[in-house]
């Protein structure tokens, strides 16, 4: 779902931000002031998280945060040069720019929440941690074993119908082994 944030909302947020926070690099302040005065550029600004995944992103951080002061991303290029960022912004007014502002309490800021949009370039599994990946993998393994057990059951029935004792014993051994693996897998989960 695409959210449309009005120019008025973006300007209100940027004015508040510039009054309330001190960026680590003055070039970041210049860029934000430029955006306030250039509606053609500001209408293409998207406030997001994780600008590094965007085709054209700008990350600005304030004092009191751990991030780099200013980082501009364009394609595979990454630069901390504020002048290059500013130049690209001015020369490409019609192109979307994904802006990430890092400041204390940004995660809980209601003002940012009003203008923040979902990052369409964030990998689908970005927020999935290793523990969740492991659980998902175990669950998939269990489902495959259950399916294998069901197939063996069908094949065992066919062997009985065909009075094929050798095949029946072979499949029964496999069935017992799969049942053990299922129990082990369930014990892990």
UniProtKB/TrEMBL annotation:
Q: Where is the IDEAL domain?
A: 139-175
**InterPro entries named among the record's database cross-references:** IDEAL_dom, UPF0302, UPF0302_N, UPF0302_N_sf, Virus_scaffolding_prot_C
Q: Which residues are the signal sequence here?
A: none
| Domain of life of the source | Bacteria
Which keywords are on file for this protein? Coiled coil
Q: Does the keyword DNA-binding apply?
A: no
Name the Pfam families for this protein.
Answer: IDEAL, UPF0302
Q: Which residues form a coiled coil?
A: 142-188
Keyword Coiled coil assigned to the entry: answer is yes
Q: Which residues cross the membrane?
A: none
Family per similarity comment? Belongs to the UPF0302 family.
**Annotated protein name in UniProt:** UPF0302 protein SAMN04490247_0328
Q: Which organism is it from?
A: Salimicrobium halophilum
What does the record give as the organism's lineage?
Bacteria, Bacillati, Bacillota, Bacilli, Bacillales
